[in-house]
Design a protein that fits this description.
single chain; 167 residues; mainly alpha; three-stranded parallel β-sheet; 3 strands
């Protein structure tokens, strides 16, 4: 029996053949969603364990007819470490008809340790700047740093203040 991830990868690859590119071509993926229209975004968490390079994920997701993509920060970092640039990545996204909707990046902005929290805010800002260069406007921002029992309990009002700092 195939795993869900294997099924999804095969479905992504085959969906452009099954549905035809005409339907995908009718949607303007880089324009803002029209009122009442749903835009489809692919979260690369769904195929994360396949360890597909980001440029291949972008091609598959675009071919499948999605209008947006939400990759992990470490996928973008691996792409950049291979010698590519943010400008080239933005071009790949545009060529595939995709909008970078969000990036999954878990900076420890909520940590109880002030030094860890300060570095988490710096990391989040760096990520936000990268996302902006790629045409995106969002990042995942769960309260990393207070999500494990060993991190201790944090008062929700304090957490709200930390979230305001992140914003």
């Amino acid at each position: 029996m195939a795993s869900r991830r294997d099924f999804l990868v095969k479905t992504l690859a085959a969906s452009s053949i099954v549905t035809g590119m005409t339907q995908a071509a009718q949607v303007s993926p880089t324009s803002k969603a029209e009122p009442g229209r749903v835009r489809f975004c692919f979260n690369t968490s769904c195929i994360r364990q396949q360890k597909i390079p980001l440029e291949q994920e972008i091609a598959l997701v675009g071919e499948a007819g999605y209008q947006g993509i939400e990759p992990w920060l470490n996928e973008i970092e691996a792409y950049l470490a291979s010698g590519e640039t943010l400008r080239e990545l933005k071009s790949r996204l545009t060529d595939a008809g995709l909008q970078l909707e969000s990036v999954i990046a878990f900076a420890p902005w909520a940590a109880n340790d002030p030094e860890v929290r300060a570095q988490g805010l710096v990391d989040a800002q760096t990520t936000m700047e990268m996302v902006a260069q790629l045409g995106g406007t969002k990042i995942a921002a769960p309260p990393v740093g207070v999500h494990k029992p060993a991190d201790g309990i944090v008062d929700l009002d304090i957490l709200a203040e930390r979230y305001a700092d992140l914003l």
